[in-house]
## 1
Amino acid sequence: MGAVTEPDRSPKQDRSRATRQRLLEAAVACLADRGWTGSTVAVVAEHAGVSRGAAQHHFPTREDLFTASVEYVAEQRSAALRGLFPAEAAAPDRRAVVTALVDLYTGTLFRAALHLWVAASHEPQLGFRVVELEGRVGRETHRMAVELLGADESAPGVRETIQGFLDMARGLGLANLLTDDGARRERVVAQWTSVLDDVLGRNRRGP
Amino acid sequence: MGAVTEPDRSPKQDRSRATRQRLLEAAVACLADRGWTGSTVAVVAEHAGVSRGAAQHHFPTREDLFTASVEYVAEQRSAALRGLFPAEAAAPDRRAVVTALVDLYTGTLFRAALHLWVAASHEPQLGFRVVELEGRVGRETHRMAVELLGADESAPGVRETIQGFLDMARGLGLANLLTDDGARRERVVAQWTSVLDDVLGRNRRGP
């Protein structure tokens, strides 16, 4: 199928794309584990099994590599989440959707993004790019939440309800940073799913 | 009045207490501005106008100084917030309470705490102490929220509603880290105040 949709792609281009992907995945893992201070292009190149020169060919600066990596992994996770609840299927269980959205903010991607955000708050060369990235990822997550929750944003208060819910998910992610907060989080998610049901009404999506 | 309640305190003890307070306040400001990497005892001592020896007399290690500073400023802010809504007064306006609680998570204290939390996630010597600190501050904030919101935690779901609301406040703080998110935050707070009114019922506190 690849040969049909992208007839001109050579094995060399495939290798280059695979290298790029390995670097992006290694960069997120590195950021999550070591924080911004411990995350350099050299460390990531080594983890990805790529030469430093090749890494710098793909990402000329440290800022390029780490902002691109968070965006790439966020896109992967969005696509995976949409895949769990395909639009053509019947309206999904709202509790499952709420849990899946909250799960976006626990785990490696959130830890990596958090390190990048916090570093950006006192590193001006990073700040501007992270603000743009945060805007893009935030808008995509909001769109996806509206869609999967079956919410009607033309009704008053619905937009702010979803925004507040995503802020809560982000706060739950922060609470999970140093200790496993899973049991408490599950109780909060159960309660807030029923609150969302009251505010948003029953799920309107589906055939 | 100090002379009546603490008759044995000498001018020397007063000076020592004032030095300690200056160090704690300077440490939070430093952490918020420069992050954990840029925050050393020497930098804080200079900002506080205190000798490095005096700083080390009060706080033998860097970890001592910064964890104590976040706890101290959190206690100051809690006391100030309780002062705004004294228990003997009539039931306060819930929107004002929600706004004041959310405000705990914007500004210098939250930025400082966030830097400490994030550093603790990959610095083991800091991790254990920050987990303890987070637990103490979190419990105190929850107690205060229950009290000021006039919530009855014996009713099902109320505890988790308040927890989720405080997670949302934390998430709103994070969203305010790199850009001024005040206008969006105000709309979210307005909507979620009305959601809290529905879940918690009208304010039960007061005469």
## 2
Amino acid sequence: MEGSIVMNGGEGPKSYFRNSKLQKIFLDGAMILLMNSIEESLDLKNRTKIFSIADLGCSTGPNTFFCVNHMIEAVQQKYDNTLCPDDEPEFHVFFNDQVGNDFNTLFKSLPSKRQYMAAGVPGSFYRRLFPRSSMNLIHSSISLHWLQRVPEGVMNKDSPYWNKGRITYAKSPTQVVNAFRDQFFRDLKDFLKARSEELVPGGLLAMIMLGRPEGTSPPEAIHIHTMECLGDAASDLVKEGVMGEDVVDSFNLPVFFPALSEVEQVLDSFKQYLTIERLQEIDAPIGRLDAQFLSAHFRAILQGTVCEHFGPKLTEQIFDKFPHKLESFMNTKDFARPGKATHQFALVKRKDVPS
Amino acid sequence: MEGSIVMNGGEGPKSYFRNSKLQKIFLDGAMILLMNSIEESLDLKNRTKIFSIADLGCSTGPNTFFCVNHMIEAVQQKYDNTLCPDDEPEFHVFFNDQVGNDFNTLFKSLPSKRQYMAAGVPGSFYRRLFPRSSMNLIHSSISLHWLQRVPEGVMNKDSPYWNKGRITYAKSPTQVVNAFRDQFFRDLKDFLKARSEELVPGGLLAMIMLGRPEGTSPPEAIHIHTMECLGDAASDLVKEGVMGEDVVDSFNLPVFFPALSEVEQVLDSFKQYLTIERLQEIDAPIGRLDAQFLSAHFRAILQGTVCEHFGPKLTEQIFDKFPHKLESFMNTKDFARPGKATHQFALVKRKDVPS
């Protein structure tokens, strides 16, 4: 599974389960928007007795349960507000993430009192996960910035795209940045192709994405600088002679943070199958963050990937230095820039045409 | 999850993954029967574009993949043999087991080249797992002898059903045996009620069950004696003063092995919703078994449950003695009796009436 990112499993102090509060802050801001959009765009003309919902990139919770509950509430409200309250469907909810995700922890933490049948779906959301025309509502939160893979050539010193000394495109030459952007375009297309096949006609796809403010260039995304702090930590270890520079050169994070117009551009290429119901930036009221908190947050996300490349000993050393690198970055003007934490919301509807 | 049995996870030497060959022997004998029955009984009149299959009590594989492949092959054959080969559906396969099952290992071992979309479903199959009228073919292999719970009173010394000194009903008074049989009846009813709601009209339910030969009494089932060998091992530890007898008295395995007529009796109580398409005993060509092999097999199944009650130290001691107890039993006439390893096959079809 080249490039796949799997969150820390279990329920321990370093688990994603205990370190996903930042995502929750982003979700809080987006949930009302998601619920209102469902209310506006959901079509009950062709209603069925089973309403299938998927959360793609669910990890282990609790955020995924929070989202699912809100989506179900919005659908139920739509039924209540129409003339078919007695016609309310049964909900079948599919929780998807990579094969390496900790589904055991996800299943153990499923709410015991839930108004839906639950299933887990292992696999990359850049490919088909469900039968054709089987899903009524597909959702993905804060996952689509993870690419399928690091773009070709980025870790090859003979390539024009070689990203020497860095693990992201935060401070890279334009051609490297473009390689990441092109990969994002390809990947979002793969994602939308699969979803447009899986959705029933009239079915909805909701995406909450980490991005950057419109009008800024990719290296201006705050999230990419935050992640590059890990590269700075690794570079220090090179300077200290703990490891060779090739160990850093041969590692990159498969990640990209788009502007809204870039998302729109890809969505437009699917206008034969999908209509854009809503597409907008959202501000996240994240307030003042603490470097230790942020470090634990990123560790829960990145430890597995970092460890696979650097091994357990170097990984410990890198994450030891990480909070200090974050602290330094958080004192810069780049971090303090307003509008920095932009994320995006997109809702699209499957047209009633054969795919 | 009172009484729930969860197979050993992972892929290590004591895992179910590596110790489920005996179940495979039982399945080999039943697969042709299952395939032929699907061919005979599957109704393509109301065919849909998605064909949903569930395996209930799947554990971690590889047996569950073996069964699923055979079922899909049978359905495809049915399409090929009719006038609708171009109408072949997409397959959606649901793998179910208890919440505590090792779904991570199951998902990692999913065949990479498979002709179906896969999902895992956590939860007891004695309750609803899927939306109403959503499943075309439900299957359960060698799982239904596990009861929801140990019958009430069996581990209570003030009850007429107290099963003193034993962990199964293999050598128990009639009232204890009847308590286990009644629990089996209740549980199979719960199972059938849930399935009759989940199946589409015309949908099929296939059950491969460990049982005992028709005309024998419950304590004559060979499987129950094999399991009671574990109780004999525990009793030895009581005699040696390693633990008190109350530790054995307060433990029973939630298990029952029915005769075909008992299965039929429960199925008949659902004749308003289900028709019996096939119901028969099957002989398993298991040949001569080795006590060490059998011990490893049962350890993969029972270790978790035994350890939860007895703790890790006593569990090791019990399983150390277990092969010797098995060896002794395998030299008795009871073990050598022909027809002993009977298991059963049942195929039922959902009627086209509201549930």
